[in-house]
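SEQUENCE, STRUCTURE TOKENS:
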Amino acid sequence: MKEKITICWLRRDLRLQDQAALYHALRSGHPVVVLFIFDREILDDLDDRRDRRVEFIHQTVTQLQTALQQHGSDLLVYYDRPLPVWKQLLQQYNIAQVHINHDYEQYAIDRDAAVRTLLESQDIPLYSYKDQCIFDRDEVLSKAGKPYSVFTPYSKAWKAKVNDFYLRSYPTEKYFKQFYQGSFSGVPTLESMNFEALGKPFPAQEIPVATIETYAEKRDYPALEATSRMSIHLRFGTVSIRELARKAQELSPTYLNELIWRDFYFQVLYHFPHINTGHAFRKEYDRIQWRNNEAEFEAWCQGRTGYPLVDAGMRQMNETGFMHNRIRMVTASFLAKHLLIDWRWGEAYFAKKLLDYDFSANNGGWQWAAGSGCDASPYFRVFNPALQAKKFDPKGQYVKKWVPEIDQVDYPDPIVEHETARERAIQTYRRAVKKDSN
């Protein structure tokens, strides 16, 4: 008989410290094999073979392998589709249990259901845990037992419920001796998966205390390095949300609110699954007659709209994979309202470019800007990019960094005139939304 093992399958929880599934796996009573799959179901669909998210994952997985080797263990890594991997694992190992953390996107839900069915056919239990948020699913409901669709009352209920129990860390380090002792075949190279590394640095995992302390006053100014840059680490689970929430609770209510927004969008995705299939949260907004001018969309993508703040944001994202949150709102509003281009086009473009791309937050942010989401900016609110620049980039430092030719003749004229575009957007939205009241 082969020795029974427990498998902890990592996905978007790439760390060994304060990790729910790993903690429970290590306490299972069996040696724990830590597994990671470079999922071809996802990777094969990526057009950009220099995608920095894949580079980040590969770098992190390699670091995890090194950490496990220091404990006499190793990381079991595959480059394949999940179901064939699990069929192979069932043949090779005597698996007692499998532990994972919840994932909330539709592909992940379907993937996990298929793996669960396969494991159950062999009488192997699959245990799943909350790890990437403080509260999920049905944990924060209204007094009537309904999910919230407006952030402010949700955040109040969240804060009323949170306590040390929900914020405490899982002490995984106490059980590291339970790791399976042995080695595996290693981590496949990026090149073998047909990806290429750019070698540029990624945001640090540690936030300076001063950044959190001054977050409320400085966070809206894109020229300043005043945001945490934690979003990529939260996306892939290289930091613990519990640790960040404890720091935020101590140092910055404003920063804590940003973390609560993540939980809010996760539970919206769970309770309102129609947004997973390309629909507006508020379904009447699916009736908007978008212009969808492809040349204007391309100008927006390239940062050539003639609106300097919009162009700076798009160029920053195209070059670095990061865009400041204030600028995300401005660029998204500009596409959906000034240009009347379907917000789903912009959502998909951000999904390709952002290092921290996360469906729930990306979809929530885009629908907020387009006016179609829960707790959204009303359709008649149209950001004026010039006023936003005057307020949040008063010295033009951010714009000059990303649009150095702003004062030169080859910088394009504005693609639309603000007041004309604003009025067109309001009328177009009104026609779609008001049909319900006719």
About this structure: Residues 113 and 411 are 52 Å apart (CA to CA). The two ends are 72 Å apart (CA to CA).
